[in-house]
Design a protein that fits this description.
11 strands; 51% strand
């Protein structure tokens, strides 16, 4: 049974930092495509970052390049999203997603499994 459990969300002021964590279980984590997505009220879910560690591949949405970093620790089956220089427009529910096997693409329809989300709120 696949499980993805996010944590680390919270409220910060603009310019601040947060690190989100996603603990994964029930599938082959080290060779899966893992992604972070976000959804603000009234907006569609959008891809933020993804990683496929076995081929040393990462990709970011243009809006977060230079501010966010995705990485994973295979020893504890956890993927992280380090978020620096946060802006009010980063405010959203952040979701972890997994696509076991195959390729890696920054699109919500590509992913098979989702966590429940963790809220990030950035105030100006």
């Amino acid at each position: 049974q696949v499980q993805l459990v996010e944590s680390g969300g919270g409220s910060v002021q603009a310019g601040g930092s947060l690190t989100l964590s996603c603990a994964a279980s029930g599938f082959s984590f080290s060779d899966s495509c893992m992604g972070w997505f976000r959804q603000a009220p009234g907006k569609e879910r959008e891809g933020v970052a993804l990683i496929k560690d076995d081929i040393d591949f990462t990709r970011y949405d243009a809006s977060v390049i230079g501010r966010f970093t995705i990485y994973q620790h295979n020893a504890n089956n956890t993927v992280y999203l380090r978020m620096n220089s946060l802006k009010p427009e980063d405010t959203a529910m952040y979701y972890c997603a997994a696509k076991p096997g195959g390729g890696c693409a920054l699109g919500a329809l590509f992913f098979d499994h989702w966590g429940q989300g963790t809220q990030v709120t950035v105030s100006s």
